[in-house]
Amino acid sequence: MLTSDPDLDLAIKLTHQVTFDKKPDIVGLGWHYLPDVKNVITHSGGTGGYSSSICIDLNKQIGVVVLTNNTSTGYIVAKDLINLIH
Predict the structure, then answer these.
(1) Cβ–Cβ under 8 Å, residues 50 and 43
(2) Of the residues 13, 18, 38, 81, which has the maximum number of CB atoms within 10 A of its CB?
(3) What residues does 27 pair with on adjacent strands?
(4) CA pair distance 56, 45, nearest whole angstrom
């Protein structure tokens, strides 16, 4: 269970369903899956020299969030951290 609301849990789980799978790109509704690690979803973005990245291990229910003041390292750091935890 992700929350105390079963309807919200169902909605969240629906966003994790894979809608595109042509490796290395595996995508759910707004979430990307790491091709070499099962059950880890990611999303990243950025603007004006800043970037953000989140990686979540669905099995362990652990998330890593990295915010940087550059556009080149956030996703790599988040992915490396979640791989160490995984």
Answers:
(1) no
(2) 81
(3) 20, 32
(4) 15
Q: E strands along 1-86, which residues? A: 20-22, 25-27, 32-33, 40-47, 50-57, 62-68
Contact criterion met (CB below 8 Å) for 40 and 86: yes
Per-residue pLDDT tens digits for 62-80: 999 999 998 778 888 888 8
Write the Ramachandran bin of 79: left for phi over 0, alpha for psi from -120 to 50, otherwise beta: alpha
DSSP state letter for 10: H
Amino acid found at 8? L
CA distance 37 to 49: 29
3-class SS of residue 77: helix
Using CA atoms, how far apart are residues 18 and 71, in angstroms rounded to an integer?
A: 27
Q: pTM value?
A: 0.77
